[in-house]
Amino acid sequence: MPRPDPLQPLHGWHQLAQPRLTPPAPAKRGLFFHSLSLLAKPFGRSEVPTLFPVLNIHRGLFPAWLWFASRLMPYGKLAGPVRELLILRTAWNCRCRYEWGQHVELGLRAGLRDADILATTQDVDACTNADTHLLLQACDELCQRDMLSDTTWAALQSRHDNANIIEIMLLVGHYRMLAGFLNSAGLELEAAVEQCVQDFWQRTAATRAEKSR
After folding, report:
1. Read out DSSP for 93-119?
2. What's the CATH fold of domain 78-211?
3. Against a cut of 0.85, is the pTM above it?
């Protein structure tokens, strides 16, 4: 089990005592997956996330999912920081530690600051940046109501074209779906990503303590 996090979603993370799905042995992953594994290094990792070999258990679904997912991340239209804020907030809303931890690391790579990531853990009204506030509000409405309000839609249209708004909605929907899978499968963060999360908590300890006063 992961170490307790000093800040968690309401009701805590969804966690299982033991994973329900685990990656097959490397020899049983197939040629397609072995070719895919070579792509980890350009993304700064020594191996692909555990999610990939677990989803590859379904050989017919995995390549199609991977192509679709890549159109949202990393090859979507949204700027990297915008995309990562939305994914982090979705993971937080879904209480999915694996998804949230992965995108702490990816968000930092995309240019998010620690303060930006912390904003995804807090009440939307605590956010003073108008652009970030809008993204968090949109994500919360999609996660809680499955529909954007007229006010949020109009605000998004003032900042984004329709293609970006479509991507925002599908991005949140996709990562909600993925969070349900990850929570149910019980995947645990890889050691390097877990260390990134722990480093993040340690770096932001003073900020969190100040806001709690």
Report:
1. HTT-HHHHHHHHHHHHHHT--HHHHHH
2. AhpD-like (1.20.1290)
3. yes
200 phi/psi in degrees, rounded to 5 = -60, -45
Structure tokens at 31: 């040629």
Give the residue among 111, 148, 155 at the shortest CA–CA distance from 130.
155
Q: pLDDT tens digits, the chain, 213 residues: what are they?
A: 556 799 999 999 999 999 999 998 877 887 777 777 665 654 566 678 899 999 999 999 999 999 999 999 999 999 999 999 999 999 999 999 999 999 999 999 999 999 999 999 999 999 999 999 999 999 999 999 999 999 999 999 999 999 999 999 999 999 999 999 999 999 999 999 999 999 999 999 988 888 777
- Domain boundaries in the chain? 22-72, 78-211
